[in-house]
Specification:
- There is one protein chain.
- This protein has one domain (about 5-245): Rossmann fold, CATH 3.40.50.880.
- About 25% of the residues lie in helices and about 35% in strands.
- It is built from eight helices and 14 strands.
- It has an eight-stranded mixed β-sheet with strand order 4-1-5-6-14-13-12-9, sandwiched between helices.
- Helix 1 packs across helix 8.
- The longest helix is centred in the C-terminal third of the chain and has 13 residues, at about 235-245.
Length: about 250
């Protein structure tokens, strides 16, 4: 049986108003940023499962046993409200299991979690990510801020490897491409930090109960991860190493 990795989030819809003098018209588009990390997951030998943001509200599992089907859960560019406000709760006041609590319990009971940076993970834009106020914070190696934590670097910044001997560095160079932004966090005392960026955590891990979690505080896709990062010859190897480390029992 193949081992499954679940990517949650990493999708968006855009609605554009075009104004042309007296007249206007509208266009809409649905997009995802999963293609690079999907390729890395499949190349590493895992089965890739994807729940986009608009499906996660009701499609992310409500039972712990369902989460245990996955070797690793990736939260990428998805805000906590998407899991805290399923349709029945928001529209009809129906009580449902708190899935942020389930993610914590999943890690404590032996699962692995990776939070990837973006405009809606960690604190995110305007602090709307809101992960600090959930049980997921308990099983992250960094402290999530309660304010807008985006660090935008349109000129590009380069990650610094501070633990060259860590398992995820096997087969990787120490010189990495630049990125255009990341989520600022505060490292916890017991965290295992592999790389920093501008002095802040870039890649870090922690052990919680029987499981592990990690953070990758920039995006896995544009715009923060520009073409030179997404198309970097070691991109797939980096994520393969991360998943191998997180899922090692």
């Amino acid at each position: 049986m193949s081992k499954k990795i679940l990517l949650v989030g990493e999708s968006w819809m855009s609605f554009t108003t075009h104004v042309k003098g007296f007249d206007t018209f509208y266009t809409s588009v649905y997009e995802t940023g999963k293609e690079w990390i999907e390729k890395a997951i499949k190349e590493a030998g895992y089965e890739f499962v994807f729940i986009p943001n608009h499906e996660a509200m009701d499609g992310f599992p409500f039972e712990l046993e369902a989460l245990k089907e996955y070797e690793c859960i990736i939260l990428s560019d998805i805000g906590a409200n998407t899991l805290l406000l399923p349709t029945e709760t928001f529209a009809k006041s129906v009580k449902k299991p708190n899935r942020c609590n389930l993610i914590r319990d999943y890690v404590l009971e032996g699962g692995s979690l990776l939070m990837v940076g973006g405009y809606m993970t960690f604190a995110g834009i305007d602090g709307k990510g809101k992960w600090h106020d959930t049980a997921v914070q308990e099983v992250l190696p960094v402290e999530v801020l309660t304010i807008d934590d985006r660090m935008e670097h349109c000129d590009g910044v380069v990650p610094e490897i501070i633990n060259k001997n860590h398992a995820i560095m096997e087969g990787l160079p120490t010189e990495w491409p630049n990125v255009l932004g990341y989520n600022k966090t505060i490292v916890k005392e017991d965290a295992d930090v592999v790389a920093t960026i501008c002095g802040d955590p870039f890649i870090a891990f922690g052990n919680y109960g029987k499981g592990k979690s990690g953070v990758f505080t920039t995006d896995c896709a544009p715009h923060w991860a520009p073409p030179e990062f997404c198309n970097w010859e070691y991109y797939n190897k980096l994520f393969a190493n991360i998943f191998a480390y997180l899922t090692k029992r």
